[in-house]
Amino acid sequence: MSAESLHDSAVATLEDWTAPSPEQDSLRHTYRAFLDAAAQACLRAYPPGHLTASAIVFDAGADHVLLTLHPRVGKWIQLGGHCEPDDATIADAALREAREESGIDGLELAGLAQLHTHQITCSLGVPTRHLDVRFVAVAPPTSDGGLPPITISDESLDLRWWPVEALPADTEGTDIVTLVALGRSILAP
Fold it and tell me: What is the C-alpha to C-alpha distance for residues 151 and 44, in angstroms, rounded to an integer?
């Protein structure tokens, strides 16, 4: 595990991914060019911008998604964050972040859903750009068929399961709605 293996995995993940739209494919090419230009592109210490990894977490029936009320963004979004040097792959980073921020053991990734780029002032304290690689994760079923229990982390103001047909009001018209739809299509039988 190293910054190099994380970088290599990001390249391979993007090369292997079939984007769901021409816009996403264009963004995939942009990410690839960024990775080609910057060996440290997966680490938060790279000020011009860096890849981040996230996951939209579904319950086992794909009827609910787990969203966090993010303290910096002030909106309900998917779980995720910065890659760490000891993450072997970009997918491992997304899964680690989702587990840390949800308290759910046994999450499994179902595939890459979307890429999203946004400006933010993150932990570096300076404006930067996040090139987010967004995966779909599924929580294991519970014995009673209910939603898995969650544990809010110190990285969230709130953490809740939302019915996919009744997402929070601040997600209307945002990429979260699109991400949920893409996630459901990946999980569809």
Answer: 25
